[in-house]
Amino acid sequence: MTSTTGTTTIEPDCASHSTTVLDATGLGFRYGRGEWIFRDVDLQVEAGEVLAVLGPNARGKTTLVTCLAGLRKPTKGEVIRREVVGYVPQSHGAAAAFSVLNMVLMGRARFIRAYASPGPADHEAAAAALDRVGISHLRDRDYQALSGGERQLVLIARALATGCRALVLDEPASALDLRNQARVLGVLHALAEDGMAVVMTSHHPEHALRIADQTLLIVDAADIRVGATTELLTGATLSSLYGLPVATPEVSIGGLSQRVVVPDYGIRRRDAD
Ligand SMILES: Nc1ncnc2c1ncn2[C@@H]1O[C@H](COP(=O)(O)OP(=O)(O)OP(=O)(O)O)[C@@H](O)[C@H]1O
User: Fold this and answer.
1) What is the DSSP string of 173-238?
2) ipTM above 0.90, yes or no
């Protein structure tokens, strides 16, 4: 056990035969003396598994995943992290003008002594992380001058440079166009195929249907549902979760039958007869 933060334990356990990377039990959180944001959450994420966290705005998705990542101390319960966890925040901003390479090298902070410069091993890890997400060609670009999709990939590379075996991402594809959504989802899917445990929040149930093995729904603080994505994400459940009619028909795209999410916005086009 390397460190303990209240009830949250960080426990790299290389000798364990369990493939459970993140193990949360009885997790509850409230800000100060406010209302519970969520309570009694139990979940496990295995190596190579993707967990999507869905719920309407302000239901506590960010709060939950920051507890899982160890950035926030839960009010109740415990999270056991058996591997290093990399966190990818929602914000794409950078406080100063950094190159892409220097952004990714920040992920090496825990390996670099105070006032020391990154060494060859750090540069090697940063290059491997850039390569892993397919953006080696951007390494000398100014991070602030990149598009939202490119920045998202840089932040994933920065997390990978930590040597993490679990990745927790807050809305990794929310601000991206369709092609960049596919690109980020493809990277996460490939990382999971290589054994990474992936947790991501999303406002896109179809992203969960594409890549998530498990989904966690925050219906309200006392009603948290965790289950197999394809079983949990029915039209009826999504309609009730988001408060509008949602259909989930099977369609064939590119020769592949896929369940898609079609919300009824309740608006009739003016040119419709
Ligand atoms: N530091 C804080 N102090 C007090 N309340 C907070 C704090 N941070 C978040 N909250 C509140 O906790 C609730 C959950 O916030 P959180 O950001 O976790 O929700 P979310 O589901 O990620 O929201 P969104 O989908 O809009 O990003 C919200 O009501 C929010 O206002």
Assistant:
1) TTTS-HHHHHHHHHHHHHHHHTT-EEEEEES-HHHHHHH-SEEEEEEETTEEEEEEHHHH--HHHH
2) yes
Q: How far apart are CA 106 and CA 109, in angstroms?
A: 5
> The pTM is what?
0.91
Residues 6+ apart with CB under 8 A from 216: 41, 43, 51, 52, 53, 54, 64, 224, 225, 226
What is the pLDDT, as a whole number, of residue 6? 32
Q: Ligand 1, residues 62, 73, 168, 202: which to mutate, most atoms within 8 A of Cβ? A: 62
Distance 240 CA to ligand 1 centre (A): 21
Q: Is the pLDDT of residue 81 over 90?
A: yes
Amino acid sitting at position 36: W
Q: Could you say which of 3.40.50.300, 3.10.20.340, 3.30.360.10, 3.40.50.920 is the CATH number of the domain covering 20-233?
A: 3.40.50.300
Q: Mean per-residue pLDDT for 121-140?
A: 95
Region 33-53 average pLDDT: 97
Beta carbons of 78 and 10 less than 8 angstroms apart: no
Tally the C-alpha atoms within 13 A of residue 95's C-alpha that lie toward its C-beta: 0
d(CA 132, CA 160) in angstroms, rounded, equals 9
Question: Which residue has the CA at smallest separation from atom 24 of ligand 1?
Answer: 57
Pocket around ligand 1 at a 6 A CB cut-off: 31, 37, 55, 57-63
Nearest-atom number in ligand 1 for the CA of 90 is 27
CA dist 202 and 61 (Å) reads 8
Using the predicted structure, report yes or no on whether residue 12 has a pLDDT greater than 60: no
Q: Look at ligand 1, atom 14, and give the residue with the nearest C-alpha.
A: 60
Domain ranges of the chain: 20-233
**Length in residues, the chain:** 273
Element (H, E) at 160: helix 148-160
